[in-house]
Amino acid sequence: MLEFKGQLSTLVVTPTKITIKYSRLIGRGSKEIQIKSLTGIQFKPPGFLSHGYIQFVFPGSSEVKTKSTSDLAKDENTVMFNKHEYNNFLKAKDLIEGYMNEQEKNTFASNDHSSTTNPVNTYSVADEITKLAALKDQGILTEEEFTAKKKQLLGI
Fold first, then answer.
1. Strands (DSSP E) along the chain, which ranges?
2. Is the pTM value of this prediction over 0.70?
């Protein structure tokens, strides 16, 4: 777990989630966001007279469109930082993107693995005997072959 202290918030990063702990004029609180639910990160370095910010985008989040300092200060998905904190937040961004890529690889690998597994045989013994009877009726199996296979399936 790593913590990155910003202007009005602290960003806590783990391999599976981020937590934004904020203490603002509107109150104190925290918000947890799962890494796997992140769809993007908005990152702006601080300017000469302005703060930088890191903003997290995920389904259901609302990006602040104006990006004014007062709007960003109210956004619970954003952590603002100054020029002295910039390098730390750049590291935080890289770390989170690495975790996002790792989550994506794991999801892809598990999806890829599930597609290569053999499907479970859901046929019943009765279905198999019906298929064998059809093969016998078509002349593909003899009566003896049909009877032997039927006994094998029934465990007789």
1. 2-5, 9-13, 17-24, 27-34, 40-44, 52-57, 78-81
2. no
